[in-house]
Amino acid sequence: MYLINFSKRSSMAKHSILITINPMGNNRRNKKTDSFVQLPRHLIKSKAYRALKPISRAMFVEFLYKYIGNNNGEIFMSVRMAAELLSCANNTAQKAIKDLIDKGFIIPRLKGSFTLKQRHATEWIVTLHGYNNQIATKEYMKWTPPK
């Protein structure tokens, strides 16, 4: 990456141009480092999304980040994991997850458990994406604010 400064003759104002040079010499994307989370416009405009608290929105982005295209229903997330990802208390993470469930963004597929011999995080379905060869339910679109 190079930063080039130049000045125009007429205004003598300095301008900067940022030039990115790919050291490989091609424009191929690296799929391991070039992943992203997409929020469709219909989701952002939905009443349910607008009613989410900021911590719940951040939690939803974490769920979407864990979705890789073919693992809906196998997205593992415990309250402890959520709290660590969001840098918040377990109670706050639990409230964010409950908010997402109540508004129809996620559904627990298999409840987690914590026993002395086995730890198992809850497996989640993100309703924005299809699950088990079925189309996405998008249950958040059916949510209405309480009166």
SSE pattern, N- to C-terminal: EEHHHEHHEEEE
CATH superfamily of the domain at 41-142: Winged helix-like DNA-binding domain superfamily/Winged helix DNA-binding domain
Structural class label: alpha+beta
Question: What's the CATH architecture of the domain at 41-142?
Answer: Orthogonal Bundle
Strand segment tally = 7
Rg from alpha-carbon coordinates: 21 Å
Question: What is the 3D shape?
Answer: globular
Output the CATH class name of the domain at 41-142: Mainly Alpha
**Tally of contiguous helical segments:** 5
In the CATH scheme, what's the topology name of the domain at 41-142? Arc Repressor Mutant, subunit A
Polypeptide structure, described:
It is built from 5 helices and 7 strands; from the N terminus they run ββαααβααββββ. It has 147 residues and is an alpha+beta fold. The protein has a domain at 41-142: Arc Repressor Mutant, subunit A (Orthogonal Bundle), CATH 1.10.10.10. A 3-stranded antiparallel sheet has the order 3-7-4. Strands 1-2 form a two-stranded antiparallel ribbon. A two-stranded antiparallel ribbon has the order 5-6. A hairpin with a 6-residue loop joins strand 1 and strand 2. Helix 3 (54-66) packs across helix 5 and helix 4 packs across helix 5. Mean pLDDT is 82; it is low at 1-8 and 18-23.
